[in-house]
Amino acid sequence: MGMGAHGTGTSKALEFGQEEAAAASLAMVIAAIFFTLAVAPVLTPIMLL
Questions:
Q1: Which of 4, 28, 33, 40 is most buried, judging by how many CB atoms fall within 10 Å of its CB?
Q2: Would the pTM of this model clear 0.85, i.e. be above it?
């Protein structure tokens, strides 16, 4: 649901201009990387039980 909202926001940002869309895309990528690095190590051991 979170990435879907980011995608919707990114498409809306494209209506304002290419720079805004690029910033929104970069924010989506950074959020995905942060989530993967921060949450995956915590959830992996729980899921392997």
A1: 28
A2: no
